[in-house]
């Protein structure tokens, strides 16, 4: 029994306490009005450890009940408001940027990147050793050129076994270790998918040429004989007839590339199934994306008619080059996009987990048939690649002028389907190095261009230090060797490419003693240091990642554009001189720009922090300026035809929020 100073209460049975009993047996808890009528209840005060009945008695009193109800409804209202706010924020938020949008793609040409075992050839373990390089550059996406088992007639693009690693490059275990370590460092690995052809050493080709019933139509075969040595006039990309006679089968097979690379027949459902299985195999391994090669050549017209000659007067027997024909029947055939859509759909199934999106980029040189290129984006309903490689800037060296660069950039921006994501490159293993073809003077401005345009830049290994072609070498494929020389890591033996032997599969560029990663890491004004700062700027500033891109000015020297985001007062003006002479640019006719502009970063560091009047912006040939300015006046609303954005986003500075607008 516990005593209080007012009433006796039996804790074991509250009903025994007369204070809780009504005259007619009902409890005060059941009748709160009773308290008013019976002063005895009013005397019971709340106390610690009171039994349920006392608690109920008090909780029904207005002075407890009313605040409780107010609090309850307040909580309901707050919860509803919070849910509404969350739903609104989610609905208004722009889509999260994907990994392949945030980081540049870095292309590793495997044979030439880093040799771990001293055999003179770059390998998978070599890449693993150099992962810090990507981290140093703040690069997250790495495309590694083919490592599949191959006789290497076309640097690994002639695959003998799509599921095996060539011993020259390592083992499957090396691959798995590399991938695991890349993932643990937050890096993504993109690999080549080479669906158009196999090596002539592939098991399928051997079975096909011997007429195995299952494999006989895996490739494109046609009759040919002494009187008609080729089925038609089609030519290979590498020159001469695209047909080769096979004396085992007694027929000709098609090869759009080397004769050692027979074209697969994608009209055969078994071939389609084989390629899907290969895609699954590498996705299961965990690769983050595919660079799908030669996609425009996946199908050929089944009728095998001659292609029209570019010069109809040319003697048909002298037609030998890919430039001699209009490729009406060997490229961009009906059905091709269905193949890509199917592959994309397979990849989507592996893209569901957060952060595990599998990326697809397609390679198709459609030259200036820009509409054909853009089709590889798919449609808003049916996806294909995330982007087709944009090869237009490869033409930059043809005419170094601001107007020309603007033209090339506009080719993509004006033709890209709405809402899609652009991309830029100036080199790869098939193209001369830009630092040589455009000239070393322009390498910094070119890197600056790539890293400040909207979309994803691709960097071919060595571009970050301004590597040049190594001409005059006499290697296995003379025309492409210059751009494939070993990566220049340091001024040590073999440029740090390997340190165990005197051999490298291609000769080193002799300039490696001055142009190398180590030396440039120590020099704040180097091409490398500038690349790194620009990449950091690009990834940390919303206008570069998400903002509007607007053409502001172009002339014989200068190409100028700006990047701005609605709601954000910070914007960037880019002034790049691609001409041969110094220039002074007058932007006084652009009222949206403040009169005084401060150079945030120049490719010539001595011009950093200079304050310039917008009517006189001086640049040297090959100089680029990043100018940050503050404004509340936007350029894009007044110049809609000069501006592009993939997905509109606005910034609310009061709450530091980005929303769709
Ligand atoms: C595309 C590759 O980039 C190129 O190097 C190769 O020669 C062709 N595919 C043919 O395999």
Question: Which key terms come to mind for this protein?
Answer:
661 residues, alpha/beta, 8-stranded parallel beta sheet, 16% strand, binds 1-deoxynojirimycin
Give the SSE map.
Layout: E1 2-3, E2 8-9, H1 33-37, H2 39-42, H3 52-59, H4 62-92, H5 99-102, E3 105-108, H6 110-113, H7 124-129, H8 131-137, E4 141-144, E5 148-149, E6 161-165, H9 172-184, E7 188-193, H10 203-209, E8 221-222, E9 243-246, E10 251-254, H11 269-285, E11 289-292, H12 336-349, E12 359-362, H13 370-374, E13 387-388, H14 402-415, E14 423-424, H15 434-437, H16 443-452, E15 456-460, H17 517-521, H18 527-540, H19 542-546, E16 548-554, E17 558-564, E18 570-577, E19 583-585, E20 596-602, E21 611-613, E22 617-619, E23 624-630, E24 643-644, E25 650-652, E26 657-659
Helix pairs in contact: 11-12, 16-18
InterPro entries: GH (IPR017853), GH13_cat_dom (IPR006047), Glyco_hydro_b (IPR013780), O16G_dom_2 (IPR045857)
Keywords: Amino-acid transport, Cell membrane, Disulfide bond, Glycoprotein, Membrane, Phosphoprotein, Signal-anchor, Transmembrane, Transmembrane helix, Transport
Region (Disordered): 18-38, 465-488
Strand content: 15-25%
Total DSSP E strands: 26
Given helix and strand content, the structural type is: alpha/beta
Overall shape: globular
Average residue-wise pLDDT: 92
Distance between the termini: 70 Å
Largest sheet: 8 strands, parallel
Q: Can you list the strand order of the major beta sheet?
A: 13-12-11-7-4-3-15-14
Fraction of residues in helix? 25-40%
Low-confidence residue ranges: 1-30
User: How many alpha or pi helices?
Assistant: 19
Ligands = 1-deoxynojirimycin
Rg, please? 34 Å
Subcellular location: Apical cell membrane
Domain Glycosyl hydrolase family 13 catalytic: 107-538
Main location: membrane
Protein name: Amino acid transporter heavy chain SLC3A1
């Amino acid at each position: 029994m516990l005593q209080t100073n007012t009433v006796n209460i039996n804790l074991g049975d509250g009903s025994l306490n007369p204070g809780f009993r009504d005259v007619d047996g009902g409890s005060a808890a059941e009748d709160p009005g009773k308290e008013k009528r019976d002063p005895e209840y009013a005397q019971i005060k709340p106390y610690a450890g009171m039994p349920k009945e006392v608690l109920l008695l008090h909780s029904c009193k207005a002075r407890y009940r009313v605040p409780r109800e107010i609090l309850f409804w307040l909580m309901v209202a707050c919860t509803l408001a919070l849910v509404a706010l969350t739903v609104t924020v989610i609905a208004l938020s722009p889509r999260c940027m994907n990994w392949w949008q945030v980081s540049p793609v870095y292309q590793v040409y495997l044979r030439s990147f880093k040799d771990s075992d001293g055999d003179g050839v770059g390998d998978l373990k070599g890449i693993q050793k150099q992962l810090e390089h990507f981290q140093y550059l703040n690069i997250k996406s790495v495309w590694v050129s083919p490592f599949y088992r191959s006789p290497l007639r076309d640097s690994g693009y002639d695959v003998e076994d799509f599921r095996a690693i060539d011993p020259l490059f390592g083992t499957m275990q090396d691959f798995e270790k590399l991938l695991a370590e890349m993932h643990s460092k937050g890096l993504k690995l993109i690999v080549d998918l080479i669906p158009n052809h196999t090596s002539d050493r592939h098991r399928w080709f051997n079975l096909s040429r011997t007429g195995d019933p299952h494999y006989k139509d895996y490739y494109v075969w046609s009759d040919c004989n002494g009187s008609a040595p080729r089925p038609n006039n089609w030519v290979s990309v590498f020159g001469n007839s695209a047909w080769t006679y096979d004396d085992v089968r007694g027929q000709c097979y098609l090869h759009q590339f080397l004769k050692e690379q027979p074209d697969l027949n994608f009209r055969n459902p078994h071939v389609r199934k084989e390629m899907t299985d290969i895609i699954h195999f590498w996705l299961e391994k965990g690769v983050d994306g595919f660079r799908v090669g030669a996609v425009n050549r996946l199908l050929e017209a089944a009728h095998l008619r001659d292609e029209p000659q570019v010069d109809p007067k040319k003697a048909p027997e002298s037609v030998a080059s890919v430039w001699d024909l209009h490729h009406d029947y060997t490229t961009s055939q009906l059905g091709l996009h269905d193949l890509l859509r199917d592959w994309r759909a397979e990849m989507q199934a592996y893209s569901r987990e957060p952060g595990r999106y599998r990326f697809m980029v397609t390679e198709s040189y459609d030259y200036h048939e820009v509409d054909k290129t853009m089709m590889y984006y798919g449609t808003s309903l049916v996806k294909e690649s995330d982007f087709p490689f944009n090869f237009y800037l490869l033409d930059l060296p043809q005419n170094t002028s601001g107007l020309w660069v603007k033209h090339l950039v506009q080719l993509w921006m004006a033709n890209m389907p709405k809402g899609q994501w652009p991309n830029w490159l100036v080199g790869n293993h098939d193209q001369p190095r830009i630092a040589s073809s455009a000239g070393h003077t322009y390498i910094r401005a070119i890197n600056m261009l790539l890293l400040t345009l909207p979309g994803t830049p691709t960097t071919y290994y060595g571009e970050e230090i301004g590597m040049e072609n190594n001409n005059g070498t006499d290697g296995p494929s003379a025309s492409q060797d210059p751009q494939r020389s070993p990566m220049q890591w340091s001024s040590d033996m073999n440029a740090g490419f390997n340190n165990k032997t005197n051999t490298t599969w291609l000769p080193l560029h002799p300039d490696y003693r001055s142009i190398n990663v180590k030396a440039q890491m120590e020099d704040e004004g180097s091409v490398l240091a500038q690349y790194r700062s620009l990449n950091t700027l690009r990834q940390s500033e919303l206008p570069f990642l998400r903002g509007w891109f607007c053409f502001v000015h172009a002339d014989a020297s200068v190409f100028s554009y700006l990047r701005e985001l609605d709601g954000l007062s910070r914007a960037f003006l880019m002034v790049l001189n691609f001409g041969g002479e110094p220039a002074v640019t007058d932007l006084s006719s652009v009222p949206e720009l403040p009169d005084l502009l401060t150079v945030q970063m120049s490719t010539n560091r001595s011009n950093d922090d200079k304050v310039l009047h917008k009517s006189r912006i001086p640049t040297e040939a090959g100089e680029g300026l990043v100018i940050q300015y503050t404004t509340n006046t936007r350029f894009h609303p007044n110049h809609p035809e000069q501006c592009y954005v993939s997905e509109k986003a606005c910034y609310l500075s009061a709450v530091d929020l980005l929303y769709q607008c």
